[in-house]
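Query structure, 491 tokens:
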């Protein structure tokens, strides 16, 4: 579907907000989602995923506008204030939801950027829709940004926006941050539109990644496929402009999570949770969007085998898996849901007793206060994605363990593993390895667990999301200053 929305339409839907924001965040989703209640009325609910957890406190602090989609198709809404934030909804048509969001973003890019765990699909109509929606985001950002404003574009759904926006508004400072992994050249080059994506990203002054490896993959690809000169983290374009690509590991609002965990109501709720679970000796917890990158089947299988082999007694050790629904109309996600339903049913059927299922599986999302109580209730947090940009759940757990107790089992393939080195690290494909590590995380002496948790807490409490945003935005400022401009190396 081609984009027929001209700048007049954009101006009309912004209704007097043009040129009003000195700081703009552009993300596929707004921080709140429009949801329909059973009685037909609609309400706002916090959007899923780590991106919102991280960026919401940043926008609240900085002030400015957040442009994004409400999660409902064909909805035209004027900009509005929500919880102290200026939100600018972007309309997405029903066919674009299928082609741009479910299609190109989540059935092409998502699997391609996550080690092709699922097979990416390449469809030309999906690409056209991706281009059209990216163009719309660029038009809205260009219209709402005041002269020389900072625009910070987020994630894989909007990789063409930096270049499109630069064409419309060369006066802006443009930052881009990728929340998911950036794949090695060997995988990325499968993409028929690889050069367009690289050039799209090069419209930014600063391109941020979760890890050094991801930033290096990008710089290498730009050198190989676009032919620009590069030196370490800097890319030199023909027009004299330079682009910096480097790692800025994202984080959470650590102290607000700790504060929540410390509240007496949270402690009381944590006790209640343990009681409802039958007061077992050990509670293991998993919290993930229901996504095939998160390694849920492997993790449940590992725990299930420990119970089936009698190594863990279901009366003593239980697993709580929270898995909020995600992208439910995409095929691979539907299949995963069926697989998890079957797996949990089988394990509980095999080793459960009356009132004592070894696995409690919750296919819903919960407010932050309930999550903090779950983190407090859990002796072992199990975060074992097959590939993950960062994984903020791991950091949330650590932030909530203010007594330096508990243990984190963490996949080597989560970006968080680079920072949380004292976690019990596992290869999530290795079921025996995971079984052994879960047992170690359960049975290590408290002194050992405290030593590990203390070190991880130092990292998470010191490197919070404020610092992440500050580091990124300061670097962005530096790049565009005439004295800060990086000069092209001599041939
Ligand atoms: O970074 C991962 C991410 O795709 C975010 O962009 C997004 O907000 C979150 O996961 C949840 O995904 P979705 O918006 O598709 O529900």
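Result returned for the query:
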């Amino acid at each position: 579907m081609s984009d027929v929305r001209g700048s007049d339409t954009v101006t009309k839907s912004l209704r007097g907000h043009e040129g009003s924001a000195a700081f703009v965040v552009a993300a596929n989703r707004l921080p709140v989602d429009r949801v329909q209640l059973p009685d037909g009325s609609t309400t706002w609910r916090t959007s899923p995923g780590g991106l919102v957890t991280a960026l919401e406190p940043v926008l609240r602090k900085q002030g400015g506008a957040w442009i994004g989609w409400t999660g409902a198709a064909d909805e035209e809404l004027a900009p509005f204030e929500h919880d102290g934030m200026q939100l600018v909804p972007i309309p997405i048509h029903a066919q674009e939801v299928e082609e741009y969001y479910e299609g190109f973003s989540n059935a092409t890019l998502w699997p391609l950027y996550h080690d092709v765990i699922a097979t990416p699909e390449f469809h030309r109509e999906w690409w056209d829709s991706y281009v059209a929606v990216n163009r719309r985001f660029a038009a809205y950002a260009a219209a709402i940004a005041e002269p020389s404003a900072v625009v910070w574009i987020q994630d894989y759904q909007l990789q063409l926006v930096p270049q499109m926006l630069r064409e419309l508004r060369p006066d802006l400072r443009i930052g881009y941050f990728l929340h998911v992994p950036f794949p090695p050249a060997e995988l990325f080059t499968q993409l028929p539109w690889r050069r367009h994506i690289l050039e799209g990203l090069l419209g930014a002054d600063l391109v941020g990644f979760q890890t050094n490896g991801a930033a290096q993959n990008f710089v290498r690809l730009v050198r190989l496929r676009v032919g620009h000169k590069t030196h370490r983290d800097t890319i030199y374009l023909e027009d004299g402009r330079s682009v910096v690509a480097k790692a800025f590991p994202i984080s959470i609002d650590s102290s607000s999570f700790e504060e929540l965990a410390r509240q007496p109501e949270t402690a009381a709720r944590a006790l209640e949770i343990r009681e409802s679970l039958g007061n077992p000796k050990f509670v293991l917890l998993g919290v993930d969007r229901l996504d095939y990158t998160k390694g849920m089947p492997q993790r449940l299988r590992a725990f299930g085998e420990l119970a089936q082999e009698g190594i863990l007694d279901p009366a003593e050790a239980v697993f709580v898996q929270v898995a909020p629904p995600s992208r439910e109309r995409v095929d691979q996600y539907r299949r995963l849901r069926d697989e998890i339903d079957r797996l949990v049913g089988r394990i509980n059927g095999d080793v459960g007793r009356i009132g004592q299922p070894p696995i409690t599986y919750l296919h819903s999302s919960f407010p932050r206060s309930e999550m903090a109580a779950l983190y407090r209730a859990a002796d072992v947090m199990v975060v074992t994605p097959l590939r993950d940009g960062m994984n903020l759940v791991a950091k949330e757990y650590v932030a909530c363990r203010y007594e330096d107790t508990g243990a984190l089992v963490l996949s080597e393939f989560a970006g968080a593993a680079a920072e949380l080195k004292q976690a019990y690290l596992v290869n999530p494909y290795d079921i025996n390895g995971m079984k052994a590590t879960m047992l170690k995380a359960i049975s290590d002496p408290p002194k050992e667990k405290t030593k590990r948790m203390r070190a991880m807490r130092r990292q998470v409490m010191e490197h919070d999301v404020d610092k992440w945003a500050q580091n990124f935005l300061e670097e962005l400022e530096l790049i565009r200053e005439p004295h800060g401009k990086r000069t092209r190396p001599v041939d």
